[in-house]
Amino acid sequence: MAPSAPITPLSPSELAYLTTSLTLNPPIRPDSRTPTQFRPLIAELDILPSCNGSARMVWADGAECVSGIKVEVARTEDIFGVPTEVAEEFELGAAGGGDTTTRSVVNRRSWVEVGVDVQGLRDDDALNVFLAGVVLESLFAGDEEGLTNRLKINDRFHWKLYIDILLITPPPTSPSLSTTHPLTLLSLTTHLSLRSTLLPFPTSQGNEDPIFSDDWDLATPLYPPELTSLLPPISLLVMTIGSNVLLDPSRDELSVAEGVWAVSLVPPAENKSRPRVVGVRTLETIPVPIEDKTVGARGEEGWEGGVVGGRGGVSRETVRRVIKIVGCVAREVWEALDGVVKAERDKQRD
């Protein structure tokens, strides 16, 4: 199960007031944002000179994420860990002896490795595992064939992608100044680092052992700019409360959420207008007990032992509304990310 939403130090009366304000139409958010408005952020590309691609993002509340990508040449293996050329020799030998065999299946999922490090948490913490899983699964669900084809050098070798992500922010479960869940920040930073990743230009041919040019001006981008329909995925955090859908919720808003979603999308395919949803995950919401007899669930009077948040149960109509709203907002997010990438390219040309 995905890790739960952040815990908030708010009092019962503050939680009740927050619940009432967020269920209004339109909702009144603590920082006066609209339901689909993101907090301000700063983005940079190519900040790590020893990486093939890197990016850095900082939210207005101080939460910071750095993503670095390294590539190395690896031998292509099948799902049993046998190099493909060895497996093919075995198949040919078996076929010559009259036996029937099936062609080995290449383990392409092992071509990408994601590591997430959150300040103050163990490497095997549930949040780290969840964030790494969202990045890896959405990456392959959105463009598995296209990505692995670009990572393929020849039938014997391929590029192995190492994505290392560092969240320089206190974990969302600690009573600190951090007011954000790191999913959206991590996803957008990884998106930019993947788009800035360059692969050395190969000078070898066919199935020879790979040799590459030292001239980085000849390097090819992992995600060519002209392939607008094959960009890396993005994952956005969304919450629902009442009939309202809120994007980029703060920690306090998450404490009264009825549902928390991680929606992963990729740009529309050619000749299509709607973004493609490649993954939807739910985060567990934590019920916040209210012991005040005069303040109950949603601020009702005369309720003893009520709770705010964590009520559970989501209708299909809510799911459809969440996906529709996130799809519309994702277009604006991609336009903003495109602006960052284009500005960096113009700066390099100058």
Protein described:
This protein is of the alpha+beta class and 350 residues long. Helices cover 29% and strands 23% of the residues. The chain contains six helices and 13 strands. The protein has helices spanning 12-22, 84-96, 126-151, 183-195, 251-254, 316-349, and strands spanning 41-45, 53-59, 64-75, 112-118, 157-168, 198-199, 220-221, 234-241, 244-247, 259-266, 276-283, 288-290, 306-308. A five-stranded mixed beta sheet has the order 1-2-3-5-4. A four-stranded antiparallel beta sheet has the order 9-8-10-11, with helices on both faces. It is elongated and about 70 Å long.
**Major sheet description:** 5 strands, mixed
Class by helix and strand content? alpha+beta
**What's the Cα radius of gyration?**
23 Å
Strand-residue proportion? 15-25%
**How confident is the prediction overall: mean pLDDT?**
79
Summed up, the helix count is 6
Number of strands: 13
Uncertain runs: 87-103, 172-177, 288-311
Span of the ends, CA to CA: 48 Å
Assembly state (oligomeric): single chain
State the gist of this model.
With 350 residues, the chain is α+β, with helices and mostly antiparallel strands. It is built from 6 helices and 13 strands.
How does the SSE layout of this entry go?
Elements: H1 12-22, E1 41-45, E2 53-59, E3 64-75, H2 84-96, E4 112-118, H3 126-151, E5 157-168, H4 183-195, E6 198-199, E7 220-221, E8 234-241, E9 244-247, H5 251-254, E10 259-266, E11 276-283, E12 288-290, E13 306-308, H6 316-349
Parallel strand pairs: 4-5
Antiparallel strand pairs: 1-2, 2-3, 3-5, 6-7, 8-9, 8-10, 10-11, 12-13
